[in-house]
Amino acid sequence: MESIIADKKTFKYAYFPGCSLKSTSKEYDISAREVASSLGVILKEIPDWTCCGATPAHLTMHILSIGLPVKILLQVKEMGISEVVTCCAACFSRLKFANDIMSKDQLHREMVSRVLSKKYEGEVSVRHFLDVLVNEYGIESISKKIVKPLKGLKVACYYGCLLVRPPEVTKFDDSEDPHFMDDLINVTGAEAISWPYKTECCGASHSLSNTEIVLRLSNDILRFAKESGADVVAVACPMCQSNLDLRQGEIEKRYETKINLPVLYFTQLLGLALGAESKNLGLNMHLVNPFKILQEKGLL
Amino acid sequence: MKWFIDSNTLKSGFIKEVEKSSSQKIAHCYQCGKCSAGCPIAYEMEYTPNQIMRMIQLGMKDVVLASNTIWLCVSCITCTARCPREIDVAEVMDVLRRFAYRSGVYPIKGRNVPLFNKVFLRNIEKYGRLFEMSLIGTFNMLSGTPFKDTSLAPKMFLRHKINLLPEKVKGIKEIRGIFKKAGKVSRAKRQSLITIGELIHNYLKR
């Protein structure tokens, strides 16, 4: 009975890709759309969306860091859709933070209306794609659509920072030991391993400005994942992915070690299990090649 | 003692300034050190986050704003999530950076971050969406490392991970308006990306 209700519900969301998904992490955008279409989730891209301001805005000017996301939320409202989905953990954090503050703080509403010349009171709800899949579409409904279980693949689910912190904003299961990505990975037939660096920081926005720090923090994460027996790392954030994947070669050189650990988006793994072809998931777009391990496990 | 803290510093009211801008009760900090224990970058900081909190309580504005700590903080929010006194330490760091930004004085170690932020925001103001080619190119030139990451570039081109041209956005006028008005509301002056002195320093330090 429950499944009938779930099947009948339409899952329609405004979609905010964000800047990274149009450049350094195109494969995240491609695979998210692929997963959405095979599950029947409608992602309607916001026309002419603009940047959320990311980290530099909130480090520089508070009102700018609220104004830029509110502009996007207003566009969602104009589309007549009540929920916006994003795949980027940083966009999610900025949009959700701005939305929360606008829904309860009169002073902010006044300040932002002076900047945008429009009124907004937090009417839109902001969701991360992972949250929509696990908590809205449901693990059970997804399990019914798995056609190619990822048997034998050990996955270290890496959540990073902005997907789980601050817990008052993100409101997911447990900010110290989250498991909603693990739940999703387990339903694909792969095994989400237990490991200690799930929510440690990769260095994120220091990627260009303090690269040494990123190399060190990302090395720790990759090393722990490897030591815990992971075949691949699963991520839900384009910055985590580029620090762990694009800079992995540099990390190996800097710390004189061999890591060779593919870093995939959870959407790519889910897509594989849903029967999508690898070329529709952008698996060839990573620097650390995931094909070898996937072929070894008989998944490609 | 490392510092002599005179009574004028103690009475300076810096703590009030920070508390007002951050809506956080800095006075509640009892120095348990939880923020610094979980901070992934504490190893690189001049002063750890809990030391910064104490310095704010003592009114040491100049030392705090000139420290590299506030620029090395990566906004991972671990400190906030774990503070037993429920102080949003990450927000306090944001407020300190905004103070420092307004003063325009940056510590030599850590100056790359405000430079990166300015280059990033100018990029958004100009294009509406991040144009990474321009961001990376401009930042590397100005930070004195023009050849940084050049080995990554061809690999990224081959995988279509970097666009040669910026994406066009219709709402660009509105974006520029937001920047302008936000600056006005915050009474922030528009700064140059970098001074000649800083630029020379960035190239000579190599």
UniProtKB/TrEMBL annotation, chain B:
Pfam families: Fer4_8. InterPro entries: 4Fe4S_Fe-S-bd, 4Fe4S_Fe_S_CS, HdrC_iron-sulfur_subunit, Helical_ferredxn. Keywords: 4Fe-4S, Iron, Iron-sulfur, Metal-binding, Oxidoreductase. It comes from the Bacteria. One of its GO terms (cellular component) is plasma membrane. GO terms for molecular function: 4 iron, 4 sulfur cluster binding; metal ion binding; oxidoreductase activity. PROSITE patterns: 4FE4S_FER_1. Residues 27-87 form the 4Fe-4S ferredoxin-type domain. The keyword Transferase does not apply. Gene3D superfamilies: Alpha-helical ferredoxin. This is Heterodisulfide reductase subunit C. It comes from Candidatus Desantisbacteria bacterium CG_4_10_14_0_8_um_filter_48_22.
